[in-house]
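MODEL INPUT / OUTPUT PAIR
PAIR INDEX: 1
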Amino acid sequence: MSAVALDVSAVRRRFSALSRELALFDAPGGTQAPDEVVDAIAAYLRESNANLGGRFETSRRSDLLVGEARRTAARFLGCGAEEVVFGANMTTLNFALTRTVGRELSAGDEIVVTRLDHDGNVAPWLELARDLGLVVRFAEIRDDTSLDVDDLAAQLSERTRVVAFPWASNAVGTLVDVARVSELAHEAGALAWVDAVHYAPHGPIDVAAAGADVLFCSPYKFFGPHMGLAYAKSALLERWRPYKVRPQSDEPLGHRFETGTLPHELLAGFAAAVEYIDSIGWNAISAYERELGERFLAGLPASCRLHGLPTMEGRVPTFCVTVRGQTPAVAAERLAERGLAVWHGNYYALEVMERLGLPDGAVRVGIVHYHTAEEVDRLLAELAGL
C-alpha cells in the first residue's frame, strides 16, 4: 500500500475497539489492537494452550508458535531470532538486563543517560549505581527538547560503559539520531542501550543500522498485546551470565534471559500485530501520521502552549500541551467528558518535565495512523473551548 493510498476507513474497520464515540488519543500509553490480534490470542487459548516440550498436539503447536514469534520479532527488529528476548514489559526486561550487565561493572564505572528518557531507562541504572557504586551522568536537552548531542559527547570518558537513550521521547515526541549517539558510545568503548518503545508504532526498526547493542520495545505500543520485547547482540548474550533457573535451556541465546513460562497467547497476538503493520506498510503509516500531525500543529489554539518541536521535522506525532487557566488533570477530565481520551501528568518522563518547568506535567496527545482528520479537528475545537 502506497502512502497516498492509505484508506483510514478501511484501517478502522479492522478495529472493533474504534467503533465508539470516544476518540482515543491515548496511544502513547498503549494503542488499540486490531481484531486479528484479538482473534490470534483467542485462537491460541482455544486450540493450542499448553506448555512447551510435550509430545502431544497442543504442546507441539506451542513449540511452533514460540519459534515463529522469535522469527517474527527478528524480522521486525532486523536481528537474528536467537537475539530476541521476550518479557513482561520494557521496564521489567530493562531491570533484568541491567542487573545482568552489572555483573561486568565495577565501582566508579560510568553510565550516561539523557533527560529525554522515560524513567524505565533511567531508574534501572540509578538502582544499579546504588548497588555497585557506579556513576550515572545525565546528557542535557535543548530548549526545543532536542537532545544536546554535544553535551552527551562531553559526558563520555574512558570509564563510560553504557550510553542509554531513547529513539523517541514518550513525552514530547522528539526523535534522537540513534545512529549518531550509538557511534559516540562505541567510540568511547561503551554499549548503545536504546529505548525504542515510543518510536516503534511510528517507523521501522533496524538494530544494525541504528548501531544498537541492546534495544527494547513494547508490542502493546504498536497494536499488539501487553508484553515486552528486547534485542541484544549475540556476542553479549553469549558472554553475559543470566539470572535463570538451572534447568532452563541455554538455547536459543535470548531464551536464557527469559524467566518462567512465556505468555504464549500474547506471542500469538504479537505476531499478528507485526503482520498487521506489514499489511499497511511503514511508508503509508509515516506519511499519513505526518499529515495528521501537521494538521494538529496548524490548528492548535492560542490558549494552548506546545512544549516541543513546532513542526513535524525531527519528531513523531506525540504532543505535550498545556492549556491556559487549566491544570493538566482538569483539562484531561474535561476532554474526557467530551469523548476525547488524552493523558495527563509526567508519563514517567521525570527529567523532561523538570527541564520544562512543568511540576504538574502536561496534557499528552498521541496520534497514530488509525486516527482521522475529523477526530483531530474535533480535538482542536474542544481544546479551544477549554
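PAIR INDEX: 2
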Amino acid sequence: MPSFLPFALPDIGEEEIDEVVHTLRSGWITTGPKTKQFEDDFARYLGEGVHAVAVNSATAGLHLALEAIGLKNGDEVVTTTHTFTASAEIVRYFEADPVFVDINPDSYCIDAGAIEDAITSKTRAIIPVHYGGLACDMSRILNIAKRHNLAVVEDAAHAFPTQHCGKTVGTLDSDCTVFSFYATKTIATGEGGMLVTRDSKIAARARVMRLHGIDRDAFDRYTSDRPAWYYQVVAPGFKYNMTDLAAALGIQQLRKAPRFRLRRAEIATRYNRELGALPLRLPPDGARSDEHAWHLYVVQVAQNARVNRDELIRKLFELGIGCSVHYIPLHQQPYWRERYRLTPEQFPNSQQLYERCVSLPIYTKMSDADQTRVIEALHSILGK
C-alpha cells in the first residue's frame, strides 16, 4: 500500500530553517526586526505605496480592519455564505450583523449583483471573499461600494498572489485587504496574516490595536530614544502581533512566491488536461486579465457520475489520497443558520457547490508522480 498523499503540505526548505535558526540565535523571537522586515518586504512585493501590518492570523487582520473603519453595534456587513466562519464571526465581535448572499456559479466568489440587493440603511461595509485563488469581480464591487459610500475589506486568505484586471490583489481601491499565511496557504508561516492598506491612518490604528492598544511595539521601545520601560496604552486593544519566528518563515516564503505560483499553475493545467473527460466540472479559471493563485483546485461531481461526492471522497481516502471540501457554507452551520434563519433555498449556487465539490491535492511539494496517483485514482473511480 503506497503512503498516504496529504491534501496539502507547506514547502519549507533550508532557507526557512536557516532564517528561523538565525532568529533563535538573535534572542529576539517575539515581534521585532524580522517582523518589520517581513512587513517591508511584503509591501515592496505588492508595490503602489501600500502599508503592511503583520498579525498572528487573517482572522485577526479582518477584526483589526473592521475596528479601524469604525464598525459598531447595529451595523450590517454584506458577505458571502460560501466561506469559512472567520469571514463573518469578526462582524459579530462588534455586535454587528453579517448579511449573507449567494455566490456567482461561474466563479464561486460572492455574487456582485446580490450585494446591491442586500444593502440597507444599516450597511457599513462589504467583505468580498476571493475563492480558491480567483479574485471576486472587484471592479463591480468597488463601484457598488462607492455609490453607497461603503467600506470594502477584502478577505484574501486564498488570494496571494492573485490579480484582477491586471492589478495584484492588495493594491486595488478597497479600504483593506487581509491575507493568510496558515500552514496550507500559498505561502506559509504556520499561523499568521497580513493587513494591507493604502490608508496610513488605518495602518497606524491596526499597529496600535494589534498589541493591547500600546502606542509602540516592544521592538520600538527597545530601539528608540525613549526609556525601554515607558509606554502608553491609548485604547483597549488585542493580542494579535506576529512573532519573529513566524516572520522568519514569511521572509523566505515570500521570495519563493513567484516560483510557488508557477508550480501550482502547472499542476492545475495538468489536472485540466487529464480530467476533462471525466464527469467532473473543472474549476473556473477567470478572465484573461486575471491571474489565478491556485490555492485550491475544486471540482464538482456531475449528477450522472457513477458515485456521488461523499462516495468519491471515501474512495480516494481508501486509495490513500487526501482531499477536502471548501466549504460547508455558513447557512449550514448551526450558529449562523439559527441566528439568521437561513435556509439552503436562499443560496442555491452555494448549496449546489457544497453538495458536489471536492478539493483535490495541489501544493508545490507535490511531485508529478503524486499527481499521477490522483489522476489515475479519479479515472479508476469515475471512468467508464
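PAIR 2 NOTE: Residues 244-275 form the longest helix (32 residues).
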